[in-house]
Structure prediction request, 124 residues.
Amino acid sequence: QLQLVESGGGLVQPGGSLRLSCAASGFALEHYAIGWFRQAPGKEREGVSCISSTGRTTNYADSVKGRFTISRDNAQNTAWLQMNSLKPEDTAVYYCAADPLERLSLEPADFRSYGQGTQVTVSS
Prediction:
């Protein structure tokens, strides 16, 4: 059974950094593109970034380009989202999910097996 578990969220001041982790169990991550998504209260879930199964191709939402970096290590069965220069508008629950078709879109409906999410709060 395909399971993903996010971790690494927390409270950080504006301008600070966090590194989120997405650990896979029950399957080999190397067969899937991985996406990061976020959902703020009262808003729809939105795509943040995704990475191909090999790690060679990435995609970012305009709102995080130049600030966030997605990466993965298939040997560790883990993907990460490094978030720098955080802003209050980045506050949300962050989720990772997998796409076996590697569409590399930022559409939440293209991904499955969402984890439980990790809360990121950017506030002074």
User: Anything to note?
Assistant: The first strand starts at residue 3 and ends at 7. The chain has a mean pLDDT of 96. The beta strands are 3-7, 10-12, 18-25, 33-39, 46-51, 58-60, 68-73, 78-83, 92-99, 118-122.
